Amino acid sequence: MEIIKSIEEIRKISRETKSKNRSVGFVPTMGALHQGHLNLITESVKDNNITILSIFVNPKQFAPNEDFDAYPRNYQRDLDLAKDQLVDYVFMPNIKDIYPIGYKTRIVVNELSSIIEGKYRPHFFEGVATVCTKLFLATEPSRTYFGQKDYQQCLIIKRLIKDLNLPIEFIMVPIAREPNGLAMSSRNQYLTETDKEKSSIIFLALEEAKKAIASGELKRKSINAFMHKSLRSVPEIKLDYAVCCLAEDLSEPEIFLKGDKIVLLIACYLGKTRLIDNSLMKI
Ligand code: AMP
Fold it and tell me: Which residues contact 111 (CB under 8 A, 6 or more apart)?
């Protein structure tokens, strides 16, 4: 496994690989790797001749009041895990190469970026779309792997790839969870043991709402109310949103129809830690 810092060098490696009719898988991350990231790597290694993992804590997707400085960084552990997972190249660019002095360009995927999660983190998806575009242009992958854990992000990156005619296949990988249902996240390190136990209510709220839907509840507001009720049973949870939408475009019809593919999305705080989760279902 090689560590590459230079954009030109990673691009050269990717181009040379593809010129020999070999495929390049790309897994973008911010490091602090856990099983969720490792599952993306496993899929990429399975599908492609080489896999590039990027580790870059992207300042542009953190608001000033968020945890950019405190974000967990443990590069040696990440590199050991990446090597075990058979990653070929770890791309770790410097901030000044990704955002050179005087940097001005922004990538915005309209509408999808300003609803639901975008309402609570207004600059987040612009930061994600901008850095992913830059990472795609540096690594020129055949396929890229993202986690369903960040479902809205998946829709945005899929849209961006289509809109910019990037020749990249997008693959969404299911959510990796702790035994109690908590979706794995680098930020789970911030949770106390008690918080971790309490956090299982998020997965339970998703499951309870899905049960209600399966037994015939199709009104959006009632489905949302099911999730709210479950989450209220843990007073320490401060809810940002718990909503049911059409999975395709996150629109919110009053009533869902048989055959609809839906997604239930939750974001909440437990203490100071913000947690997100979701679940897909066909009605
Ligand atoms: P991050 O390092 O948090 O930016 O995440 C990098 C990639 O890993 C993104 O595509 C995430 O959606 C994905 N990811 C993070 N947590 C999980 C999880 N629990 N299950 C599956 N994918 C995940």
Answer: none
